[in-house]
Queue: 2 jobs
Job 1
Amino acid sequence: MVSRVIPVQPFDLVVFGGTGDLARRKILPALFRRFCAGQMDGGARVIGAARGEMDGAAYRAFTRDAISEFGGDPVEMEAHLSAFLEQLDYVALDANGDDGWDDLVGRLDDGDRIRAFYFSVGPSLFGPLATRLYDHGLASPRCRIVVEKPFGRDRSSAQKLNAVLAQHFDETQIYRIDHYLGKETVQNLMAIRFANTLFEPLWNSQYVDHIQITVAESGGVGTRGGYYDKSGAMRDMVQNHIMQLLCLTAMEPPAKYDPDSVRDEKLKVIRALDPVEPEGVVRGQYEGTDTLPGYRNEVENRDTTTESFVALKARISNWRWAGTPFYLRTGKRLRARASEIAVVFKDAPHSIFGSDSGRHRNILTIRLQPNEGIEMGVTIKEPGPGGMRLVDVPLDMTFSEALGPQSEYVPDAYERLIMDVIRGDQTLFMRGDEVEAAWAWVDPIIERWDVAGTQPALYSTGSSGPDDALALIHRDGRRWREIRP
Ligand code: NAD
């Protein structure tokens, strides 16, 4: 199969926060890989813009180190790195002041190229950057801004941020990034659902018993403790990433695969979510081991009530999903780093093989990490003599065999999303009303915790979370899928 890489038009991309951790680990390596793939032609320019003083040569050296550490295939580096670095430049500027802005304007003075500004800085700078872009004449109708997470910390702050951005930019220019939407398998979820006749007729409460969405991490908060303790799992994972996965799993088929058709359907899902009852949510904090600190020690706040784990039962009150619960869970220091969406179908209405054949059900699993892929569990006859014994096996849906070696390379989400910004495709980015609606669902849960002031349940490092989380699903006669690498 021939790879179809369509080059994008020449563009200028300014990465505010171009010396930060995200730029180093994700944005710059992603741009390099797109360059190697032939998607960025020689006309593209990438300008790092951040507070530290450095010249273009130093920024190119910084980028070379970043690429060799995070994603530089030695053969590609040998072949393409010098040419890629030639397209890089750097401007020292202050998002909170006027220093450096004239310099940036001077470098962007030419023509009608596509221009994108990536806000890879702390959220307190999103508003000031938008305002400064406007003040310096850079907020032209043809430019785009890319806004990183977190987008607010509740509905009210998200509304305020939306209002600030809307003063200078039209909604069609604002790309709120959720990198989960750029994952290949997440897009495949839409292809599986809406390009096949097989699944969609079964994708409802008549056939689906329940759905589980798990985003499990094995690591703790590490060096991000200061940031994380002000946020917690609900704000850091549930309101954005898990909500997006829920929406794509539950939404009605959009009329078209275009930004507003897709985002309208996602918004309807969020608005159909029932409020979560107190008994429908569990939060936890990990304990330490002999060698690893517990959450409270790691964030250096012994009294913190911030959660490193959340499990909850969500209900969507619409025709398709009434009666089918969605169990969501995420946490740190769990048994393994594993994220998946599991669609658990109902038992066959009657077993012609008798009660001895056991209980079998089909499960469609969309794995997001570590190995992106899709697996369909089907029940077959166990081979060999000895009667009709049934066994569950995964139906092989390894795309690499069907699609050839090219499909073995799974592009990082940032590669896809940055190119979508340049192409002007907002389908995989969150719209302002979607973000606000997601906060509106999450806010009451957090407010209840704040009012109660109780401590989250403790759970052991390497476990599946607190016992209460097991009870949450056991009460309904179901169980969590095993968290495995
Ligand atoms: P960082 O602290 O590593 O880098 C911050 C960058 O902003 C630096 O380049 C710094 O020079 C620049 N900066 C700070 N103050 C400035 C000012 N006044 N004017 C101009 N530049 C200034 O942060 P990060 O980890 O790269 O995160 C950037 C954004 O991306 C944040 O919003 C974060 O929440 C988000 N994010 C980060 C990650 C990650 O893995 N690091 C993941 C998802 C989202």
Note: The chain has a mean pLDDT of 93.
Job 2
Amino acid sequence: MTLLNIKNLSVNFALPGRTVNAVQNISLNIEEGQTVALVGESGSGKSATALSILQLLPYPRATHPQGSITFKDTELLGAREDTLQKIRGRHISMIFQDPMTSLNPVLTVGEQIAETLLRHTAMNRREALQKSADLLSRVELPSPKEKLQYYPHQLSGGMRQRVMIAMALACAPRVLIADEPTTALDVLIQAQILELLENLKKETGMSILIITHDLGVVAEIAQRVLVMYAGEIVESGPAKALLKSPFHPYTKGLIASIPKLGTKKRPGARLEGIPGNIPSLDQRPSGCPFHPRCSWAMEICKTQNPQLRMIEAQRQVSCHLEPGSL
Ligand code: ADP
Ligand code: MG
């Protein structure tokens, strides 16, 4: 069953004197119990997509000129605030790259998790704190009862991310959106957090939308992948098949940039497999937005933006090359 259905979503930001087309006509489905990864370099429109789901973009600077996002039968795009508040944190939860910016520095961990429970359930304070301790133990935080008294700054980055996950899971959501949840963490802790997400998914049957610039993360946990470039989906497919034989030169470049196990990549370091940078979205190149960086670019790529087309069952690509020619 499809839980979340994004259809022809576009997001524009109106800035003084110009408009940024951050997301252009993308579609994405998440089935019950599925982990879907949205992958692409920084600036490709991943967060704008994620924030659209719970309507957390800075409106009215951000606009949705078209599109639809449904959770089960509820339309979320343009929904009333009271509808959204019932869904946020209750049916769909979100975690971010930097837990420090989402956690409240002056409240204890226990107070923050309990707050979510008090808002969405009929629990009293004592029950909510008890449940908070249970949640901290589910995210494998040592001494969960004591940790309820801690303030965020007293925890390590990995522990704070576990607290965020505990908060996100408090009301047993059906969909967890994780926007670069491991990017700020070092490699060993990254692996632990991914394993935790994987275990929690098995336990709860929830669906996960994981957003990352790292295809290594995708290989670990996703069943399905969508690759985003300059606000568009350029390739999608089952994770194993896509990683084994990519159809789009950009995907191939991303795969070539997966850091080898044990090497730490400088944040923001250039992708080894792909020369150049993602274009500024208010000055997108003509034709295929990837053509200036593409080693396979042909004449047609400079003038015509290829449509996303079905290549084989469940696999789509937008590229003028014959599939299989990489
Ligand atoms: P990603 O998450 O893939 O790194 P984003 O979705 O954050 O990319 O950004 C996509 C584009 O939208 C970028 O060009 C960025 O500059 C622009 N953008 C994102 N958020 C805002 C905002 N709040 N105001 C104006 N432009 C924004
Ligand atoms: Mg982002």
Note: The chain has a mean pLDDT of 92.
